[in-house]
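Quick illustration, no need to memorize.
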Amino acid sequence: MKVLFVCTGNTCRSPLAEATARKLGAARGLKDVTFCSAGTGAWAGAGASEGAILVGMERGLDLSSHQAQPLTAELVRESDLILGLSEQHVAAGSELGGDGRTFLLDDFASEGRSANPVTDPFGQDLEAYRASADDIERLVALAVERIAARGLPP
């Protein structure tokens, strides 16, 4: 199973979600699940933002080798589950062929009880990155548990 996290630039939120999911998935023993990320407006090869790298380090995540990639129809086609960090990202994934497999991260993690976007910290101070990372960590933990317990949604 391949899970794709999507944000705008693929330098802050989705790399943090990807790294968090990898860490939690490994701890949970999810050997048949891979996690990746992309951005609707990503510059191919761009590194993670400084704030994401620093907040990631605080949480035991290494984003130093991250390279941004744009969201493409091919990535969507290869992915079993696409989790957007905002409604715009969900719409982009659906438009590229992921309809029925694309969800807002909060909506998927809460199993439909909540549908809030994760705030974009880009260009803000470290506290904004920490707040977004807190949300991402909580939601990704719920999503990983849901995947581990039941696999993909019907």
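The first strand starts at residue 2 and ends at 7.
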